[in-house]
Design a protein that fits this description.
The chain is α+β, with helices and mostly antiparallel strands. It is built from 24 helices and 42 strands. The chain has an 8-stranded mixed sheet with strand order 1-2-4-3-7-8-11-12, sandwiched between helices. It has a 6-stranded mixed sheet with strand order 34-35-36-31-37-38, with helices on both faces. The longest helix has 20 residues.
Length: 957
């Protein structure tokens, strides 16, 4: 936000900095030096080629399907300089745009990167077959054929491109299945993906078959809900995280695994002949299997067979491409056991395999920066050796990480990485046996599993640990077994095991086993919300007669501190899973034997760029400990005064404005009733004549003035002055306000220091690229033109890549090429969950830039929605043709078609119901070239119809 208030705040912040101690200045110098050392080199040029291509696949190999593709090529790629390639697959519910940032990272390292939208999503045709070898996998093979036919792609032999395959979740499954089906693949990096879809969605933790598994209804519902909207839902990999670990080469710009995508990624229309409206673009057999399982809570043999058709489990012995398997520890969808099974199966065939666990996953995103940097480095190292043929062999060592605490500088989580020579699997290298005690007893299974315990919510992480028992384990539906306080800390790396006994009057029971870490104050944490579902059959009616069973808990990485206790909970319900509908009372007891914890005791910490100066920082912080304690206490007191509640309806909405009214003391009403929302992925234009209330609305939004009535929510937080959620907004309102004696770059740095946010989060390189000031960024801003100041202000608004960007007349002072570039910047910015609200008088630019518009007149909203809906249907069409006179003669011969006057260089035609395609065909048959066909009605026409050509607003203040 740029205003005189900003300048004043910056001056006060700088004055405060000058009063700090020498020790704090030394810390800042160390941080600046570390940031400069870690700065990434400027990316080389690259070009892209986008096309919708038709490939032939299906069981017969001849069924056509259209795939929306983009090929990223290094600027120097040519027939004389052939480059290796990477197939980059997106996650479920995503599109090729979900992995754009990853593709740009990889092309910068010298790879040609081919991205595509999988069949059934986005603009691609076909139906979703869940990575079926005959469909999605064969589609990818045809894309390999296209790479092999290009003159700028390196070949191993005729028809065999030098290629690696990278993907997460849905894309990771494709990487494994493609490598098993096509020997041309030279290396793969599957991330957060599955081994056996049937076991992933129907797990049974005592070793039972999927037909006896417990249905993972929460995740399954999200997947099929995503397929139903033709491209929304969980995506396995999108975006990348900046930064590299110490020692990482310049080529370490590789993808970082994290969930992405989201609703709205596709058209929302099911194809003709879809099996069931509830399944959208899923194939009929997949839809039918899901409906059977979702209805009964059990899988039949046919459904299991179908899911296994799309699973790497049965074809791992065919994979000869070296595989780097990256799996998330915070993942209730595809836990660590999935990667473990893939690693064991691939290694058994003699293929090089490396396993890396990181602290993110489907529930935990990319994890802390240090962790995502490690994954990016390992990925680049793997591809460079096995695809480029550069660098030493990465080896098959195992790396993992765990959350170690908070960073002293940026207050973010810190993950510590570890490595060992050999992969220990889920059983670990060592074992710690912990005695448990507890009487057990009866537990009730409620009718239809309701109410149910909450352990996790997809994408929300370990919600149960946050609730701390309020809605976690429900009384009467669980029993607890607990250890004594640990005498020493234990590092758990792998899957713990425990033995239990159960009895049921029906002979069957569904149970959920959980392992909690309980601190000395009694606070219990369920690591990453992971639970072990169990279905037991053939049970005795009394627990004394029952046989013990061994339950394998999910794999975790966690340090349990000395003095903590371990608690095993056996519950009868879990919100994420299907439970038997019939009520019953089970008896549960320990099965004898200890709780067994796997360990990896000889793991070596992985050094990072933070290691050296962190020890120096410890000494400096000790000298100012008293001051820091005071700061923390003041911050906590201020935080307690803030309203930290979240409105559940708007928790995922970047901006929700409800019944906003602004009336001044003299009775003047600037805004009488404004009500709209801005959702992730949207670029929303705020339109209206002068004085309509646009700027007043933005000033209220940024806290520059208080509303008379109404509420504004940012990601569910009610907006008040000083609200912490304001840090998630970047803004340009009321024009830029810079310190004239500082250069453009120094102004940006001063602004960022004043925010108090981590230096590494600023993204200065991206901001300066957006500004496009070149060497002028080092000149004092008092010598800037208006356009230069505007461009610098836009770059300042984008510092930190805020999740919501609010811009008031951002193109003011920009020339036409800069306006066109700003259009592209805003459209690209509204990705990965970000959103943009822009106020502008340039209606043509709003029409080309914005996905949605809100039209305000006299303080009220007169229209809101997608731009195309506001524009509406056009009664006439504008044709740009090569020969207007010849075209007019052709059109005059068509019945009902009429050429209207005033075509502004083109022909304005009233087609009178004749399809545009027929008109174009007649012109082409007559030899007239047709360059463009567009509706005549524009946003400007709709705008004037809504507000009136002579409309004047109520007047902004």
């Amino acid at each position: 936000m740029r205003s005189p208030l900003d300048a004043a705040r910056i001056r006060r912040a700088l004055a405060g900095r000058r009063r700090r101690t020498v020790a704090v200045l030394a810390v800042l110098a160390l941080v600046a030096a570390a940031a400069a050392w870690a700065a990434r080199p400027q990316r080389p040029d690259f070009r892209t080629e986008s096309a919708v291509v038709t490939v032939r696949s299906g069981p017969s190999g001849i069924e056509p399907v259209d795939l929306d593709t983009t090929l990223y090529l290094p600027g120097d790629a040519s027939a004389r300089n052939r480059v290796p390639a990477v197939l980059l697959a997106h996650g479920f519910g995503g599109t090729k745009e979900s992995v754009r940032a990853d593709a740009e990272d990889l092309v910068a390292q010298g790879y040609a990167v081919l991205t595509w939208t999988a069949r059934g999503f986005g603009r691609s045709g076909g139906e979703i077959h869940l990575d079926n070898p005959d469909y999605e996998v064969r589609d990818a093979q045809r894309l390999l054929d296209r790479l092999a036919a290009r003159p700028d792609i390196r070949l191993d032999s005729a028809g065999d491109p030098r290629v690696g395959v990278v993907g997460g979740s849905y894309g990771g499954g494709l990487a494994l299945l493609l490598a098993a089906q096509d020997r041309r693949v030279d290396a793969i990096v599957p991330m957060i993906t599955w081994n056996d879809l049937s076991r992933a969605f129907l797990p049974e933790s005592t070793g039972g078959e999927p037909t006896e598994g417990v249905f993972k209804k929460g995740w399954a519902g999200i997947f099929f809900g995503g397929g139903g909207s033709a491209g929304s839902g969980p995506a396995g990999i999108s975006g990348s995280t900046a930064g590299q670990p110490e020692g990482a080469p310049a080529s370490a710009g590789a993808p970082s695994p994290r969930p992405g995508g989201g609703p709205g990624a596709g058209s929302g229309r099911a194809p003709g002949g879809a099996a069931d409206p509830s399944c959208g673009r899923f194939a009929a057999d997949v839809c039918a299997a899901y409906l059977r399982i979702a209805t009964t809570g059990r899988a039949d043999a046919a459904a299991v067979e179908l899911l296994r058709r799309s699973s790497p489990a049965g074809v791992l012995d065919r994979i000869k491409a070296p595989a780097l398997l990256v799996q998330g520890e915070a993942d209730t969808l595809f836990p660590l056991a999935e990667a473990d099974a893939n690693a064991r199966g691939i290694a058994a065939a003699g293929t090089p395999v490396r396993v890396a666990w990181f602290t993110g996953g489907h529930d935990g995103g990319a994890g802390p920066t240090s962790d995502s940097d490690r994954v990016k480095f390992l990925t680049a190292q793997w591809l460079d050796h096995y695809v480029k043929g550069e660098g030493a062999a990465p080896g098959t060592g195992f790396t993992f990480s765990r959350i170690a605490g908070f960073d002293a500088l940026d207050r973010g989580l810190v993950a510590t990485g570890y490595r060992v020579t050999d992969y220990p699997g889920l059983n670990g290298v060592g074992r710690r046996e912990i005695a448990l005690a507890g009487p057990g007893g009866p537990v009730a299974n409620p009718p239809n599993g309701n109410p149910a315990a909450i352990s996790s919510v997809p994408f929300a992480g370990a919600l149960g640990s946050l609730l701390d028992g309020v809605a976690g384990d429900i009384p009467g539906q669980h029993v607890r077994f607990e250890s004594a306080p640990l005498a020493e800390a234990v590092d758990v790396v792998g899957a713990p095991t425990v033995r239990i006994r159960a009895a049921s009057p029906t002979g069957e029971a569904v149970l959920f086993v959980k392992l909690y870490d309980v601190d000395p104050q009694g606070a219990a944490t369920l690591p990453d919300g992971l639970v072990a579902p169990v279905r037991l059959t053939g049970l005795a009616s009394t627990v004394a007669e029952s046989r013990p069973v061994t339950v394998r808990l999910p794999g975790i990485v966690r340090r349990v501190e000395a003095g903590h206790r371990l608690r095993v909970v056996v519950a009868t319900s879990d919100q994420a899973y299907a439970s038997p509908p019939e009520p019953a009372v089970y008896q549960v007891a320990l099965g004898g034997g200890p709780l067994t914890l796997p360990t990896v005791d000889d793991a070596e910490p992985i050094p990072t760029s933070a290691t050296l100066w962190r020890w120096v920082l410890v000494g400096l912080l000790a000298a100012v400990a008293v001051g820091l304690v005071v700061v923390v206490l003041v911050a906590r007191r201020r935080h307690r005064r803030q309203d930290s509640s979240i409105h559940p309806e708007y928790a995922g909405v970047p901006l929700a404005v409800r019944a906003l009214r602004k009336e001044y003391a003299d009775g003047f009403v600037a805004v009488s009733e404004v009500d709209f929302e801005v959702h992730p992925g949207q670029v929303v234009g705020l339109l209206g004549p002068n004085g309509a209330g646009k700027t007043t609305t933005l000033r209220v939004l940024m806290g520059l003035t208080q509303p008379t009535a109404g509420e504004i929510y940012v990601f569910g937080h009610r907006l008040v002055p000083g609200s912490p959620v304001l840090s998630r907004i970047g803004a340009l309102v009321e024009g830029p306000g810079f310190l004239p004696h500082l250069s453009g770059l120094d102004n940006l740095k001063a602004y960022w220091r004043a925010t108090g946010r981590p230096w590494a989060d600023a993204h200065f390189d991206e901001a300066l690229e957006i500004a496009g000031l070149g060497s002028s960024v080092h000149r004092r801003t008092k010598n800037y033109s208006h356009g230069m100041r505007q461009r610098l202000a836009i770059a300042q608004a984008m510092l930190g890549l805020p999740e919501l960007l609010v811009l008031d007349e951002p193109t003011d002072g920009l020339d036409p090429p800069q306006i066109a570039e700003m259009r592209r910047v805003l459209q690209r910015y509204a990705t990965d969950g970000r959103a943009v609200l822009v106020s502008s008088h340039l209606l043509a630019e709003v029409e080309q830039t914005c996905t949605h518009a809100v039209v305000v007149n006299k303080g009220r909203i007169v229209a809101a929605g997608p731009v195309e809906e506001i524009v509406g249907e056009s009664p006439s069409v504008l044709f740009d043709v090569s020969d207007p006179d010849a075209a007019r003669a052709v059109l005059d011969r068509l019945g009902g078609v009429r050429v209207l006057p005033d075509g502004d260089g083109g022909l304005v035609v009233d087609t009178n119901g004749t399809p545009r395609s027929e008109v174009v065909a007649e012109l082409v048959r007559a030899g007239v070239g047709v360059d463009r066909v567009v509706p005549r009605r524009r946003l400007e026409d709709a705008f004037l119809a809504l507000v009136g050509e002579n409309s004047r607003g109520s007047g902004d203040r």
